[in-house]
Amino acid sequence: MKIESLRKFKYGANAIALTILVGAVMVLLFGLIDRHDLRWDFTANKELSLSDQTVQVLKNLDQEVQVTAFFRRGESPDDYFIRRKVGDVLKEYAYRSPKVHYEMVDPDLEVQKAIAENITTDGTIVFRSGSQRKDVYKSQLFNYDRFSEQALPEFTGEGLFTNAMVAITGESRKTVYFLTGHGEKNLEETGPNGYRQIKDYLTKENYEVKTLNLLTGGTSDSASLEDSNLLIIASPQHPFPEGEEELLISYLKKGGNLLLLLDPLLPSSCPRILAFLGVALQADLVLDPKRHFLLGMHYPVPFLSEHEITKPLKDKGMNPVLYLARGLTLKQPTLSTLRAEKLFESSPEGWGETTLNQKADAKFDKEKDFAGPVILGVTVGQLSKKKEEAESEPASPELQQGGPASQPVTENKQPRAVVVGDSDFATNGIIQVPGNMDLFLNMVSWLVGSKEAISIRPKTPEFRNISLTEGQAQFIFWFTQFAYPLLFLGIGGFVWWRRRLL
User: Which end of the chain has fewer CB atoms within 10 angstroms, the N or the C?
Assistant: First the structure.
């Protein structure tokens, strides 16, 4: 009897000591994690982590930013979820930058703060830096357009928060013009071929987006090309009238920036502008049997060259997809101080098909077609001084003869341009393909000189579903409802039975 009592005391003491030890280890780990604010994001799409763009903005933040989020403590699950989501994201901002301070305020409990900030709407998030202020509202935090009725809405708060910080701490808002009057892509069209999503993304990135018709002088407001930071010409369907190209070349000569998106099956609308930039169009349709999207060779997935625009995409392994693209050829720009360089190209197995009406069963014909790799995107920018001295190429004949392009470039303001042999990659239909939206916005950021904005934007939450057969569903039901609990019940019974024999 005495021996049995000692044995029970021994096992009991061991169990208590083990429990205390495990508890002490857990407390120690919790203390270390809390002290050093360690965190890991194990979600498949890293949905709990800030985007590269946000991290870059916070890294360069040199002004204090106070964020005050006014949210009532609502009882509904939606209110609780939104309040917690906003708080979690702002906590990450404060963790990433000591310049960011945030506070969650219930306007019903702290009335004076709400009155002081002139808050009239529940769910208002106020960003302040010095005398600058920008408000974001709860109604803007979710996008319900891209998902079906059964899917969760897209949380867009991070992009809004980051852009609000840029707006109150950065430079003045930059203006982007879209040229009209030649059948270009429509900014208001919401169908697959429209540019409505591009307009929305640019607006969210804090650009002022306007349209411009040089023929009629019509603009979306009273402004003109002179106040433009960037001019975008997206798929003109008709030739430019006489004099309009000279006007645009003069704009470039003054240090203007141009994004030119062109499509196959059309003659060049602006040959003089292309010659000024040192780019020639091929009369082809680029097909790529080696690197293409699932839908066919006419959806090429180009190789990206080393450049500020493409580096974030290459680092993340993102591959933009084009649709019905044409090839480009590099020439010497009119100005010897400029240089045209390829931005992306097809694989060596790709080619420029010149017999366009036979693309369904097209095969490379070395006698007629353009051999790969075919250049699909080009940047034009200032030649570095080192290269300028090394090459010291003479000016083009047009410049030497005193043509329209021979006007002296404005001192210290060199033009920048990007030419792409496709405009469809930025349409509503495929802008959501991973990499397409970032490629377009990085081009814009590089052209306007916003180096810090060249990055990967906040990711959209991935809607993930699972398809099960009836048998698989029944197995999951029976296993989780009965087998799994019985497993632990059996283990407990076995341990109890063994301890009775000790």
Answer: N
Q: How far is the C-alpha of 377 from the C-alpha of 316, rounded, in Å? A: 20
Distance of alpha carbon 227 from alpha carbon 249, whole angstroms = 16
Q: Residue 395 burial (CB < 10 Å; 0-12/13-18/19+)?
A: middle
Looking at this protein, which amino acid is placed at residue 495? V
Chain-centre distance of CA 73, in angstroms?
33
Q: Which residue has the higher pLDDT, 305 or 4?
A: 305
At residue 145, the pLDDT reads 56
What are the pLDDT digits (tens) for 187-205? 999 889 999 999 988 887 8
Q: Is the pLDDT of residue 402 over 50?
A: no
- Number of Cβ within 10 Å of residue 103's Cβ equals 15
Q: For the segment 440-451, what is each residue's pLDDT rounded down to a tens digit?
A: 999 999 998 876
Question: Which helix (H) or strand (E) element contains residue 370?
Answer: strand 370-371
User: Which residue has 């402004």 as its token pair?
Assistant: 223
Cα–Cα dist 203/167, whole Å: 12
Q: How far apart are CA 135 and CA 133, in angstroms?
A: 7
Task: Decide if 354 contacts 400 (C-beta within 8 A).
Answer: no
CB 61 within 8 A of CB 461: no
Kindly report the CA angle at 191 between 188 and 196, in degrees rounded to 5? Answer: 35
Whether 397 has a pLDDT exceeding 60, the answer reads no
Phi, psi of 359 (to 5 degrees): -65, -20
- Residue 339, H or E segment: strand 338-345
Classify residue 4 by burial, with Cβ atoms within 10 Å: 0-12, 13-18, 19+.
exposed
Band the pLDDT of 390: cuts 50, 70, 90. low
- Integer Cα distance of 438 and 98 in angstroms: 28
**Run of H or E including 115:** helix 111-116
3-state secondary structure of 157: helix
- Are 127 and 65 a contacting pair, CB within 8 Å? yes
Determine the length of the chain: 502
DSSP label at residue 128: E
pLDDT in tens, 266-278: 888 889 999 999 9
Mapped onto helix, strand or coil, the DSSP state of residue 445 is helix
Q: What would the two tokens of residue 63 be? A: 């002004």
Token readout for 104 is: 């969650």
- Tell me the angle at which helices 52-59 and 157-169 cross, rounded to the nearest 10 degrees: 30
Q: Is the pLDDT of residue 242 over 80?
A: no
Q: Give 178's pLDDT tier (boundaries 50, 70, 90).
A: very high
